[in-house]
């Protein structure tokens, strides 16, 4: 079990310690591992079928997931948060043009698979496509295609770089982690004066990404799930009117 010092905005999915014993945690994880075994067996059958049909070497196969599961990490159940166990998902590829036996530590978003699909199909990329082409990592696995990845769900948003993770909740609470020195995300650095500049920069990245890509003029909603976006939009438009990028302006007053 791993519990962060300030897991904010997540009381709905917090596990009651009086109801969860070590044996219950063990059984919980055992069921999850059994599901993984079942998936592995199913993928094996699919590969065998492709090989029998003579199409295995002509097929691009990608194994990934939309999210992980807390499984008790940070005292949480279920999903929907941005700790590593929930957002760091597998991305395994096999097929034409994909090198074998190669690993890459690069930051990649699920969006980055879309340009690959277009390229494989010899289709023209739409100008509004947000994903980055993952293909350069095939030739240079230690390179990078993006400096940050972003996630959003209902009342919270996240930006992750290779060094830091920043999360903002609709109730105004925040989390900041040094993912190099603190890979289990146990020490929340949000509000620490020593990390003020980093927190400022990451807030700017959130505003630039989420609101710079909005294709519409959103309305100000009163529901909690829209408050973060409304504040970001207000800050972002003020930054743009001032002629600067968000990360160059005063820190947003979330």
Can you give a write-up of this model?
The protein is 32% helix and 11% strand. With 254 residues, the chain is of the alpha+beta class. The protein folds into three domains: 104 residues, no CATH class; 39 residues, no CATH class; 108 residues, Arylsulfatase, C-terminal domain (2-Layer Sandwich), CATH 3.30.1120.10. The strands form two sheets. It has a four-stranded antiparallel sheet, covered by helices on one side. β5 and β6 form a beta hairpin. It is globular.
Question: Main attributes?
Answer:
6 strands; alpha+beta; Arylsulfatase, C-terminal domain; disordered N terminus; globular
Instruction: Give a quick account of the main beta sheet: strands, pairing sense, barrel closure.
Output: 4 strands, antiparallel
| N-to-C series of helices and strands | HEHEHHEEEEHH
CATH uppermost class of the largest domain: Alpha Beta
CATH topology value of the largest domain: Arylsulfatase, C-terminal domain
Q: Do you know the CATH architecture of the largest domain?
A: 2-Layer Sandwich
Number of H/I helices: 6
What is the total number of structural domains? 3
Helix content: 25-40%
Radius of gyration: 21 Å
Task: Give the SSE layout.
Blueprint: H1 22-52, E1 61-64, H2 84-87, E2 91-94, H3 113-120, H4 136-139, E3 149-153, E4 156-160, E5 164-169, E6 174-178, H5 196-212, H6 224-241
Antiparallel strand pairs: 1-2, 3-4, 4-5, 5-6
